[in-house]
């Protein structure tokens, strides 16, 4: 042991009488521990002293090591590093390990190894059944430029990656990589492949946006969620960005316009909403842009369709299955430099209206898919462009672009003899060109869904059920059903109607359902399949007996979610943070507990109502929410002081409502709140020991009560109380003397209330009472009393 031995002959490992007979039990390990393993003796001396594997951040190059070290490995040869890599990734079981570990075979001839001048510069081992974890020692290959272990069930640790100063390409598609901590140290990295991994609905790691030399970034189908960070704009050298098939949501940041070198951007099959950033239209090198969403049930992008008329290189534009509105711009792709090239425009299944602009005649070879919109007219001149639509306009005329009104097929146009535009049956037909379904057929399908809903929720016993199941009455006139422009179902409003049972998941298959109001019904509601309701923005389930929120995170379009007065318990599920479009979230009057999540992803949140639960821990600051103006966390178990940056990012000119009554909040009401012009602040029945004096000059606060009563208009001081409200008000309530009051804001004058013990267990009461007394006397010292 303790030498630089590189191997042990196999025949020695069968010498059972060697090493005091230990070889009979431990074979080779009884002679020398193998590379990347060690013990104090450099070999196994008994069953209680096996050779242990070195940690991944350390290693041992030779046989017989008595320790592992990282520093000593900085001088390890390429061969030694590769041997450790081979052992750590199950090399003996690789599909192809030709040459590896063979002393007589030069390392540059080992399978997957590429060398320049006898020095290893690349490892190409994709689809080779590597297993385990790649030890970070691999990055000690100082000339390594390409590392490819894609399509292997293997993990990678990135510590020490800065040692590979020439590393330009990492290919880690379809591996077990879930954590890329440390990757930002690969400063010269130009290509990063992380597709087809599972990052567990995490945000795209911030470290990626520190790799400012990246040219090619592949993140598709890797279970990323949350918003696309505005730090995407840091990657100014990026030429290709593939990020389709994830769960990204929210708006596309305007900083994407910083990618001036980009030629391909693929953001398809995500859950983006909002308008396309105008900065996107300034990418003059961009050739291909994908932001369509045919496999995701979501409202998608909205607002007008930009003209993209300042982009001379753009040849392919795919924005299908969104909610873009308005007319097709006359100048669409008007900046394209070569108009004789093939141009492809995909705008299927949006909400575009009007006439197809005749100005598109400028393109001689155009493929444009605008089916499934509300297009009313095609100029005849466009129907004579023989090379359009891959030459099918020459065969089928206008119908190669869009089916006539009253006709349809699944493509909304005729592309072959086998797929002609067919007449719609029934009395209801669409007045628009390019229908992909018949309105009469769609309404029939929706009728079957509504009938199933009626059956499963005890429709016979509903309070109101006018016209339900009446085939002679349009479904748009059934009680509680509303339709958009008399066409398909847009809302179900059946609150307080004696619904029972479990609403069928098929209700989420109504393609244009926006409002689902089922409040005050004793139902067993399940969220299974809610991801199909891509247009659903308002879901009211208060007072329904709801017991679980499992699955709600798939309702990406939700703006208003109300689950108050139910039987929810346990922690608030983290999937709530996936609802990036939430404006109002109400979960008050349940039995939810644990720490309250920061909800930092929900940037659009304006109203939060979570009172009368059992949330505990520190009060969140909600300092990253620019629009949050209503916060009700009353009747919980929050402790500690109000954070000094509470609502720190909210517009101070907006009227603010904060209710934190009946918690265990202590300390001084922070002066940082003084930035709000108009504030309604409820803080009674906590353990508050003071008020920053700057707040007592906020005359508009609490409906003018602070202007009338100074600090008393916020909270009555120690030694006093105010019946029911804990502060003075112009309604005639004054702060009155109370011998039991030892904190600010008492609303009941009693010994129990004065110690903050109402509702406490006896043990909790003793603890709380002691803390309250200490806080009281501390406050007296601070206030100079």
Describe the structure in brief.
With 785 residues, the protein is mainly β.
Description of the molecule:
The structure is a single chain. The protein is 9% helix and 19% strand. It has seven helices and 44 strands. Strand 27 (481-484) and strand 28 form a beta hairpin.
Radius of gyration: 34 Å
Which term fits the overall shape?
globular
Overall mean pLDDT: 91
Strand proportion:
15-25%
Report the uncertain regions: 758-785
Number of strands: 44
Helical content, roughly? under 10%
What's the topology here?
Blueprint (H helix, E strand, L loop, with lengths): L21 H5 L10 E2 L13 E2 L24 H11 L24 E4 L2 E6 L7 E3 L11 E3 L5 E3 L12 E3 L19 E3 L22 E3 L6 E2 L13 E3 L4 E4 L13 E3 L4 E2 L1 E2 L12 E3 L10 E4 L11 E3 L4 E5 L14 E5 L4 E5 L9 E5 L4 E4 L15 H4 L10 E2 L13 E2 L15 H18 L24 E4 L3 E6 L21 E3 L20 E3 L19 E3 L6 E2 L13 E3 L4 E5 L11 E3 L4 E5 L11 E3 L4 E4 L15 E4 L4 E6 L9 E4 L4 E5 L13 H5 L10 E2 L14 E2 L13 H4 L7 H21 L3
Parallel strand pairs: 4-6, 5-7, 6-8, 8-9, 9-10, 10-12, 11-13, 12-14, 13-15, 14-17, 16-18, 17-19, 18-20, 19-21, 20-22, 21-23, 22-24, 28-29, 29-30, 30-31, 31-33, 32-34, 33-35, 34-36, 35-37, 36-38, 37-39, 38-40, 39-41, 40-42
Antiparallel strand pairs: 1-2, 3-4, 25-26, 27-28, 43-44
């Amino acid at each position: 042991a303790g030498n630089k031995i590189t191997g042990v002959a196999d025949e020695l490992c069968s010498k059972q009488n060697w090493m005091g007979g230990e070889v009979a039990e431990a074979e080779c390990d009884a002679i020398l521990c193998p590379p990347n393993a060690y013990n104090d003796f450099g070999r196994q001396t008994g069953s209680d002293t096996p050779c242990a594997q070195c940690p991944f951040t350390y290693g041992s190059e030779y046989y017989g090591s008595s320790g592992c070290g990282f520093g000593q490995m900085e001088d390890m040869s390429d061969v030694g590093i590769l041997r450790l890599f081979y052992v750590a990734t199950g090399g003996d079981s690789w599909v192809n390990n030709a040459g590896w570990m063979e002393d007589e075979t030069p390392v540059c001839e080992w399978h997957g190894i590429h060398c320049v001048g006898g020095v290893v510069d690349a490892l190409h081992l994709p689809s080779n059944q590597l297993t385990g974890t790649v030890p970070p020692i691999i990055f000690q290959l100082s000339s390594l430029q390409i590392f490819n272990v894609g399509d292997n069930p293997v993990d990678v640790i990135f510590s020490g990656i800065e040692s590979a100063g020439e590393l330009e390409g990492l290919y880690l598609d379809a591996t077990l990589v879930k954590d890329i901590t440390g990757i930002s140290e690969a400063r010269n990295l130009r290509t990063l492949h992380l597709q087809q991994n599972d990052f567990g609905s995490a945000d795209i790691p911030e470290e990626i946006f520190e790799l400012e030399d990246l040219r090619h970034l592949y993140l598709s189908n890797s279970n990323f969620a949350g918003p696309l960070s505005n730090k995407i704009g840091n990657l100014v050298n990026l030429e290709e960005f593939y990020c389709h098939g994830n769960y990204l949501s929210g708006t596309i940041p305007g900083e994407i316009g910083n990618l001036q070198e980009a030629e391909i951007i693929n953001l398809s099959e995500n859950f983006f909403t909002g308008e396309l950033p105008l900065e996107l239209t300034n990418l003059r090198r961009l050739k291909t842009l994908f932001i369509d969403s045919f496999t995701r049930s979501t409202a998608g992008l909205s607002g007008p369709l930009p003209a993209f008329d300042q982009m001379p290189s753009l040849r392919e534009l795919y924005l299908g299955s969104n909610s873009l509105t308005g007319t097709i711009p006359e100048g669409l792709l008007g900046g394209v430099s070569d108009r004789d090239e093939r141009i492809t425009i995909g705008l299927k299944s949006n909400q575009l209206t009007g006439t197809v602009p005749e100005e598109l005649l400028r393109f001689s070879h155009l493929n444009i898919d605008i089916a499934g919109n509300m297009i009313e007219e095609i100029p005849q001149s466009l129907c004579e462009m023989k090379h359009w639509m891959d030459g099918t306009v020459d065969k089928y005329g206008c119908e190669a672009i869009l089916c006539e009104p009253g006709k349809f097929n699944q493509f909304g146009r005729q592309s072959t003899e086998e797929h002609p535009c067919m007449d719609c049956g029934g009395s209801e037909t669409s007045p628009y060109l390019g229908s992909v379904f018949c309105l009469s057929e769609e309404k029939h399908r929706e009728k079957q869904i509504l009938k199933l809903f009626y059956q499963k929720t005890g429709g016979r016993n509903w309070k109101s059920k006018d016209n339900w199941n009446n085939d002679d009455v349009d479904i748009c006139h059934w009680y509680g059903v509303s339709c958009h422009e008399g066409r398909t179902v847009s809302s179900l409003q059946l609150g307080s109607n004696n619904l029972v049972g479990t609403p069928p998941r098929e209700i989420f298959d109504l393609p244009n359902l926006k409002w689902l109001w089922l409040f005050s019904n004793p139902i067993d509601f399940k969220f299974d399949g809610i991801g199909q309701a891509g247009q659903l923005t308002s879901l009211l389930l208060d007072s329904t007996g709801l017991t679980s929120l499992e699955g709600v995170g798939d309702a990406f379009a939700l703006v208003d979610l109300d689950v108050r007065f139910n039987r929810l318990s346990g922690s608030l599920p983290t999937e709530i943070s996936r609802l990036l479009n939430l404006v109002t979230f109400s979960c008050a009057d349940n039995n939810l507990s644990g720490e309250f999540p920061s909800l930092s992803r929900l940037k659009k949140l304006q109203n939060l109502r979570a009172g009368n639960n059992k949330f505990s821990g520190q009060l969140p600051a909600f300092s990253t929410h620019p629009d949050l103006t209503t916060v009700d966390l009353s009747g919980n178990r929050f402790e500690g002081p109000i954070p000094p940056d509470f609502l720190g990012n909210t517009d101070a000119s907006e009227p603010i409502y904060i209710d934190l009554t009946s918690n265990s909040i202590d300390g001084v009401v922070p002066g940082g709140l003084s930035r709000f012009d108009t504030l309604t602040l409820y803080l009674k029945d906590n353990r508050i020991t003071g008020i920053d004096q700057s707040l007592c000059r906020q005359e508009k606060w609490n409906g003018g009560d602070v202007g009338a009563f100074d600090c008393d208009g916020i909270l009555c001081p120690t030694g006093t109380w105010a019946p029911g409200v804990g502060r003075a008000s112009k309604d005639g309530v004054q702060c009155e003397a109370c011998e039991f009051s030892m904190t600010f804001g008492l609303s009941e004058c009693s010994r129990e209330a004065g110690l903050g013990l109402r509702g406490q267990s006896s043990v909790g009461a003793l603890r709380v009472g002691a803390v309250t007394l200490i806080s009281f006397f501390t406050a007296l010292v601070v206030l100079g009393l």
